[in-house]
Amino acid sequence: MTTLTEQDSLWIRRYHPRPDAAARLVCLPHAGGSATFYHPVSAGMPASVDVLAVQYPGRQDRRTEPCATSIAELADQVTAVLLPWADRPLVLFGHSMGATLGFEVARRLQRDHGVVPRALFASARRAPSCPRHETVHLRDDDGLVQEMRQLSGTDAAILDDEELIRMALPAIRADYRAAETYTYEPGPNLACPIVSLVGDDDPKVTVDEARAWSRHTDTASEFHVFPGGHFYLTAHAQDVLGLLTKWAVRS
């Protein structure tokens, strides 16, 4: 039986605990995002799947903690936290920055601990082997807010609240810095399937860049294109939940 530690309580949010579940779905937020983004996913999964939403440091109830400075640092931390939960099959789902993080966590689990996830879902993110030069993290505060508005993933009420957005900006900037300075280091492919998802009008990733995730696994891959932009999954929640359920419950 998994024992919840103080460290787990900081990192892992189980909005609908399912202690008898046969598999676990690990949800990794986008840049500037938090575990609460995945509350609807937790509510929508069947009783056979326990949903673990990861809360990064530097936001919400962890806002006084320093943010991670790189994807590598964050991947090391998340991997260590997930090990006690790996007594059952894991499915990793990462959106945007969370997809890159999920990839690096899967690599560490496989390489260092012999734990191969059931699948990695890479949503709204180009494959690690498709780098882009991006400098959003170098913009001033107004430039960061403009980026968030364009991607339509943050509640407008928050963006329009001067006090709230100023509190959130340090974590947003740190996440963008980690995502934009990430450099893929070639190595063994994953032994788990990769399911890549993308919106057909996403300004952050092209369809071809998303399709390239298949290069990073030695087994099966799936590729799904949805109408919409960077946060296509909001309008297609049921379709995404269906795919997650299919992979999480398979034996």
Number of helices: 10
Q: Average pLDDT across residues?
A: 91
- Overall strand count: 7
Helix content: 25-40%
- Sketch the topology as an H/E string, one letter per element: HEEHEHEHEHHHEHEHH
Task: Provide structural commentary.
It comes from Streptomyces canarius. Residues 26-244 form the Thioesterase TesA-like domain. There is one protein chain. Helix content is 39%, strand content 15%. With 251 residues, the protein is α/β, with parallel strands linked by helices. A seven-stranded mixed β-sheet has the order 1-3-2-4-5-6-7.
Task: Please specify the SSE layout and strand pairing.
Blueprint: H1 6-11, E1 12-13, E2 23-28, H2 39-44, E3 49-54, H3 71-82, E4 90-95, H4 97-113, E5 119-123, H5 141-151, H6 156-159, H7 162-180, E6 194-199, H8 207-211, E7 221-226, H9 232-235, H10 237-249
Parallel strand pairs: 2-3, 2-4, 4-5, 5-6, 6-7
Antiparallel strand pairs: 1-3
